[in-house]
Structure formats: C-alpha cells, structure tokens
Amino acid sequence: AQKITQTQPGMFVQEKEAVTLDCTYDTSDQSYGLFWYKQPSSGEMIFLIYQGSYDEQNATEGRYSLNFQKARKSANLVISASQLGDSAMYFCAMRGVSGGSNYKLTFGKGTLLTVNP
Amino acid sequence: NAGVTQTPKFRVLKTGQSMTLLCAQDMNHEYMYWYRQDPGMGLRLIHYSVGEGTTAKGEVPDGYNVSRLKKQNFLLGLESAAPSQTSVYFCASGTGASISETQYFGPGTRLLVL
C-alpha cells in the first residue's frame, strides 16, 4: 500500500518570498513516481512537477522545484518568488508499480497556500 | 481539442434518487479514472478503467457503478444517492502504464445530495 502525508493543512507566505510545502510518502516499491498538483479556487487540477524515484537530479519546472530526499522518503515542493496567483491548494501524489498500482495515483490531503501581498 | 470534459458541472439530488455523471476525453487515452474530493481528504479513487469494456474498483467504490462502453467515455452512476455522496467528482484520463505519466483531469462535478 502507498501513503502520502502532507502535514501542513495551511501555509502563509509573503509575495516574492520562497515557500516549501512538505510531502512524505511510504511505499515498498523500488520504482515509483511523485507528482505535485495545484488546485486553484476555480477547482481544476493542474499538474506542476514530476520526480522519478531513480532520478538523480531534483526536478525543476520554472519557479517550482522538488526537493527529493529518497532516504527520508520526502518530496517537498519549493515555490520560489511567490506570486498572488500561487494561492491555491497543493496536492502531493505518487504512483508505484506493485500490486497493479501503476495505473493509479495516491493523493495526500493537500496544503492550502495563501500568498499575502 | 477539449481534453477531458464532465457533464454536468453541478447537480442537486434528493436522497434515493439516481444519476449518471459523464466523462469524455478526446485524447485517445486508454485509462480513465473517477475520483471524489472531500474537504480534508484529498482525492480518492472510486473506479477506474484500463480500456474499453473494462472497469475495476478503486479505494472507495461502494455505492457507485461505472461503465466504459466506448473508449472516449467513462460513466459514473449513483443508483440510490445518499448524503455521504455529496462531494466533488473528478474524472481523469491517461495513456497507460508509465510511472512518469501525469493524469489529465476534467473540471469536476459538484454533487449535493439532500
């Protein structure tokens, strides 16, 4: 079974500052993928960034980077230079390969980020 | 290219009524999924399909049925709605068994069961 834990129900950050959203995971799979999604107040799910378990480099996509620490089973999302439009719910998710789970994403409960002007 | 669409966007039901949520994708994806999102719970998988004519149970399948008669469509049915099924329902699709592949989500359907 796979489990994603996001321990921060809500986070606040000042505009233009960086913020880290925490994500820890649990899996017995050797090969797995980690995803971050953004859900603004309008409700749609927006894919942000992906990290594979065998990727040696931390993933980056523009202002988003993923701080992947495999030994600690953590995959924290770092948003640099926060903007007001970054205010949203953020979900961490993973996909493994065991037990037929390679088709499915397991989601955390999310972190609500508020960017203050 | 519309991506993933969901019908309806919002619906109010009375307890015991039935309804069908429709998901359509135009990306020729084999895999389709239905999730529900509840406050503080994230997204939980209800049912999924790995191809036309196939369906399988997810994490929270009770009270729901699904059908995949056409590759592009995935229907979610509630035979006898209960207040516990008040939720936001998301459909998603994807190409298949690649770990790195993201899923493409529809805009969601808000369902209120009174």
Describe this structure in words.
The complex is a heterodimer of chains A (117) and B (114). Chain A has 117 residues and is mainly β. Chain A is built from no helices and twelve strands. In chain A, the strands form three sheets. In chain A, strands 2, 5, 6, 10, 11 and 12 form a six-stranded mixed beta sheet that branches. In chain A, strands 3-9-8-7 form a four-stranded antiparallel beta sheet, with no helix packed on it. Chain A has a two-stranded antiparallel sheet with strand order 1-4. With 114 residues, chain B is mostly beta strands. In chain B, 0% of the residues lie in helices and 50% in strands. Chain B has no helices and eleven strands. In chain B, a hairpin with a 5-residue loop joins β7 (65-67) and β8. Chain B starts with a strand and ends with a strand. The relative contact order of chain B is 0.34. The chains are: A mainly beta (117), B mainly beta (114). Chain A binds chain B through residues 4, 9, 31-33, 35, 43-45, 47, 50, 52, 91, 93, 95-97, 102-105, 107-110, and chain B through 31, 33, 40-45, 48, 50, 58, 88, 90, 92, 96-97, 99-100, 102-103, 105, 107-108.
First and last CA, distance of chain B: 36 Å
Coarse shape of chain A: globular
Q: What structural class do helix, strand and pairing data of chain A support?
A: mainly beta
- Helical residue percent of chain B? under 10%
Most extensive chain interface and residues per partner: A-B, 25 and 23 residues
Mean pLDDT, all residues of chain B: 94
Sheet with the most strands of chain B? Answer: 7 strands, mixed
**Parts with pLDDT < 50 across at least 5 consecutive residues of chain A:** none
How much beta of chain A, percentage-wise? over 45%
Tell the overall outline of chain B. Answer: globular
User: What is the number of helices of chain A?
Assistant: 0
